[in-house]
Amino acid sequence: MSLSIIVPCYNERANIAPMVAALDAALTGIDWEVVFVDDDSPDGTAQQARALAAQDRRVRCIRRVGRRGLSSAVIEGALSSSADYVAVIDGDMQHDETRLPAMLKAVTDGADLAIGSRHVAGGDNTGLASPLRVKLSNAGIRLAQMLAKAPVHDPMSGFFLLRRALFEQLAGRLTGQGFKILLDLMLASPRRLAIVEVPYKFRPRTAGESKLDALVLAQFAGLLIDKTLRGTIPLRFITFSLVGGVGVLINVLVLELARRFGMDFGQAQTLGTIVAMIANFQLNNQLTYRAQRLKGARAWRGLLVFLLVCGLGAIANIGIARALYAENHGGLLSGAAGAAISVVWNYAVSATLVWRVR
Ligand code: GDD
Ligand code: MN
Q1: Any idea where the domains of the chain sit in the sequence?
Q2: What is the average pLDDT across 325-344?
Q3: CA 275: distance to chain centroid?
Q4: Distance from the CA of 211 to the center of ligand 2, in angstroms?
Q5: How far is the CA of 251 from the centre of ligand 1 (A)?
Q6: Helix, strand, coil: what percent of the chain each, to 5?
Q7: With a 6 A CB cut-off, is 32 part of the ligand 1 pocket?
Q8: Cα–Cα distance between 90 and 300 in angstroms, integer?
Q9: Is the CB of 338 under 6 A from ligand 1?
Q10: Can you give the pLDDT at residue 1?
Q11: Which runs of E-coded beta strand occur in the chain?
Q12: What is the per-residue pLDDT for 63?
């Protein structure tokens, strides 16, 4: 086997068969396989891929359950390969598979990485759905170029090819968050990679829908922050702390409102704290722990445990702040130390007890 083509897909049922046919036409003379990595799409993408796999040994399917994410899907697909080279291509026919032989040649000729590029002569991005998408894409490219070690015209591309050995080598350093697996790979490399950009025309989508939403953009910001901090602080902890900050605002807001409606201070603060904790649970469940989001009865159980954990965190916060204050440390320092310790406690304990992160 010389080339594994990794295809992340979510709700792409209608694109699976055309994809295999297009690869078959484009890759004559190359020993290839395609690995569809599906996150348990409700539209039956995995069943469709398996039906084809039953007829054709070159087709494989990985079905992941309880998880979501383009980048992490690509990582798992690539790590399932035994081929010499791996390529990554979207499963919606927007990337031009006929460019794969040229990309393979660039790497067999010595490049570390071949990137399908919309921004070198001969490429274009007219397939982007709207002028807003074009603006977002261009802004992302500029940000990514500031961080990337190598000058690349299309660091936001999701279409690329490299030696499997190189992927394996970088795999342990990947963030694996969000959509930008190529950028993640480039930033993970300790040395400057020799990159060749192969032009392609980004096609418009004809079946299915784009999965890019506000959350994917937030994850992109997360990837950039994580890479800037070089992994010294876990990204989840940063998100958790930001959510905590939002919780403080909610607490103060509810406190003020409740007092205006005539509640006494103690009651109003209790109400504010409870509302803030519930909101924080929701936000963490949607954002921080999106990949293992709790639903239904498990969400209620999670909320209960979260309230208990944060309640203990609050008791620790007050206890530590009081003890420091009694030893004549300033009020601000004592309060901040108490709060910081309770955030670390809430984060560490809720990660294991509420969201069961391994
Ligand atoms: N397994 C899995 N899990 N696949 C996913 C997920 C997910 O959570 N989210 C998206 N995908 C799959 C889609 O089904 C599609 O095959 C591919 O990833 C790209 O998703 P789109 O929703 O079509 O993204 P896009 O068109 O906005 O952007 C893509 O193209 C850009 C241009 O090259 C992305 O690949 C970008 O990274 C890329 O820059
Ligand atoms: Mn797409």
Answers
A1: 3-211, 235-354
A2: 86
A3: 29
A4: 8
A5: 37
A6: 55, 10, 35
A7: no
A8: 36
A9: no
A10: 64
A11: 3-9, 32-38, 59-63, 85-88, 113-117, 160-163, 195-199
A12: 97
> Residue 208 and residue 15: Cα distance in Å, rounded?
8
Ligand 1 pocket residue status of 88, Cβ below 6 Å: no
Under the banding of pLDDT at 50, 70 and 90, the label for residue 356 is confident
Superfamily of domain covering 3-211: Spore Coat Polysaccharide Biosynthesis Protein SpsA; Chain A (3.90.550.10)
Q: Is 73 in the pocket of ligand 1 (CB under 6 A)?
A: yes
Counting ligands in written order, the one closest to the CA of 291 is 1
For a pocket test of ligand 1, which of 90, 128, 133, 138 has the largest count of ligand atoms closer than 8 A to its C-beta? Answer: 90
Tokens standing for residue 123: 């490429």
CB under 8 Å to 223, separation ≥6 — which residues?
Answer: 175, 177, 178, 180, 183, 184
Instruction: Give the pLDDT score at 358.
Output: 60
Beta-bridged to residue 162, according to DSSP, are: 86, 113
Mean pLDDT score, 109-114: 96
pTM: 0.78
Sorted by sequence, the CB contacts under 8 Å of residue 295 that are 6+ apart come out as none
**β-bridge mates for residue 145, sequence order:** none
The structure tokens listed for 242 are 């930001």
Q: What is the mean pLDDT of residues 309-324?
A: 89
